[in-house]
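Incident log, support desk, overnight shift.

02:14 A customer reports that sequence design results differ from what the structure should imply. Their input is reproduced verbatim below. On-call engineer (initials T.W.) acknowledged and began investigating.
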């Protein structure tokens, strides 16, 4: 079904779970007027870095925003998937899950517009991009911090139960799954019908549909 590559053999060695994590410090903050830590989504001018708008959330936003048309989508530590107007910074809708959303959403035009996102409650959610209504959910049995990748009509995502899932984009049913040797917290990339994803077992996997 796929190939496996040991990352220890590469010049860039993979650090495994449990190893010491180095703290990173940043030498400066941009002069945007929001130097204090904020819990929300900020839009910056691409030319000079000035703040265009700031949407304040009730909890920290750890996921990377996804932009589609005139909407910005992101999850927060309260388990909320937020849709914000990309021009004005005003909330359009809010979808509530049971645990924090660290996974970054993926947005497609599938079924008229769908947002796919993982959650710490173990579920992958498909949400209508216009109304914020749930279309389906799939329980992986682990924590989903991996960000979904969508290709054609399939959603690819990893879970901390060590499994990579290929889910039907419309129904949320499992098309296939692949078990690795440890947690999968990295996000899949799909290139030429192959799914590339790393695992905490120290391997990079190249997977194809069985």
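02:41 Re-run completed on a clean worker. Output:
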């Amino acid at each position: 079904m796929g190939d496996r590559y040991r990352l220890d053999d590469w010049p860039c060695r993979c650090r495994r779970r449990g190893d010491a994590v180095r703290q990173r410090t940043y030498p400066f903050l941009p002069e945007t007027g929001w130097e204090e830590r904020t819990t929300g989504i900020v839009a910056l001018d691409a030319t000079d870095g000035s703040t265009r708008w700031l949407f304040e959330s009730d909890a920290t936003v750890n996921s990377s925003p996804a932009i589609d048309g005139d909407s910005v989508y992101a999850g927060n530590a309260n388990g909320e998937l937020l849709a914000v107007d990309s021009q004005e910074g005003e909330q359009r809708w809010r979808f509530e899950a049971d645990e924090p959303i660290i996974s970054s959403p993926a947005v497609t035009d599938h079924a008229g517009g769908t947002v796919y996102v993982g959650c710490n409650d173990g579920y992958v959610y498909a949400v209508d991009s216009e109304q914020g209504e749930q279309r389906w959910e799939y329980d992986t049995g682990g924590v989903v911090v991996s960000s979904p990748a969508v290709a054609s009509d399939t959603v690819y995502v990893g879970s901390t139960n060590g499994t990579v899932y290929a889910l039907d984009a419309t129904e949320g049913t499992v098309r296939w799954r692949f078990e690795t040797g440890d947690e999968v917290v990295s996000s899949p990339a799909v290139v030429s019908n192959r799914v590339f994803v790393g695992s905490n077992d120290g391997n990079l996997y190249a997977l194809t549909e069985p």
